[in-house]
Amino acid sequence: MATRHKPATTPSLGRALIVEDDALLAMTIADALTDGGATKAVICPSVAAALGELERLRPDVLVLDVHLADRDDGWTLAELVIQLSPKPPIIVFSTGSPENIPAAVAGMGHVLVKPFLPETLVTLVREQQHRPGLFARLRGKL
């Protein structure tokens, strides 16, 4: 697990958990989120490592590779986080095979197809921070 802290001048994106087994890509994502305003970016190379970190970090943003070395269904972590978190994080699925993600799973977050520009991730997270939550959107429809 690697941790990086953000410079003090950028608006906060909150705490980020990056679950990615490609070390170079994970560091690139962590750097982009930190430079973009994440107060902390923690990298976990597996679902097993991420499970331990979730409780400590309580991330505001979860970037999740769906095909990891220890699991080929990394989205199960997103399902768990949504079920157990009073305020689930913004979830971004990172994949080279978006067609392999079940539609119901893709609906839990946002899918970025590898390779993607790190700035695209930061922009997506910023946009989602200002979007009303599910219950607020439902209330608006009633």
Report on the structure:
There is one protein chain. α1 packs across α5. The chain is 42% helix and 23% strand. It starts with a strand and ends with a helix. The chain has one domain: 3-Layer(aba) Sandwich (Rossmann fold), CATH 3.40.50. The protein is α/β, with parallel strands linked by helices. Strands 1-3-2-4-5-6 form a six-stranded mixed sheet, with helices on both faces.
Task: Based on the model shown, name its key terms.
142 residues; six-stranded mixed beta sheet; single chain; alpha/beta; 6 helices; 23% strand; 42% helix
Structural class of the helix and strand makeup?
A: alpha/beta
> Number of DSSP strands?
6
SSE sequence, one letter per element: EEHEHEHEHEHH
Q: How much helical structure, as a percent, in the residues?
A: 40-55%
Quickly count the helices.
6
Overall average residue pLDDT: 86
Tell me the radius of gyration.
Answer: 14 Å
In CATH, the architecture is 3-Layer(aba) Sandwich
CATH superfamily: Response regulator
Largest sheet: 6 strands, mixed
How would you describe the shape? globular
Distance between the termini: 44 Å
Work out the strand percent.
15-25%
Q: How many discrete structural domains?
A: 1
Q: Please report the first level of CATH classification, the CATH class.
A: Alpha Beta
CATH topology value: Rossmann fold
Show unreliable segments.
135-139
> Spatial order of the strands in the main sheet?
1-3-2-4-5-6
